[in-house]
Amino acid sequence: MSSPVTASAKWRNLIVTFVIWTLVMFGVGMILDRTARTGFNGSDPAGFGLGMVHGALMPLALPRLATGGDVAIYALHNTGRTYHLGYTLGVNLCGAVFFGFSFWWYSRAWRQGKEMISRSSA
Q1: What is the dihedral of CA 26, 30, 36, 41, to 10 degrees?
Q2: What residue spans define the domains of the chain?
């Protein structure tokens, strides 16, 4: 059983981590918005590589979108199928990495918690 001090420290660390990630996501949303709006006004359309970048960064724009910010998460001037494939791959790979890491981290923390409980009850 964890002490109240340990439990409050865990909550404080969780809140600090949440705030830091939210600030990082706001920053990435601003960068994504700027690149999508100003970077593609030229004659060259966005292709596969930039589609992957936009797809990977798109989920990080959520805090800015949720607070009413207008974030351009998609380049309107694109190459068509290749940009769409890159965008789709970027979203899926980013999700796989993020959720894969999250599930690994939570399962590791869960196992460590169970080991600590079994040691303290023995």
Answers
A1: 170
A2: 4-121
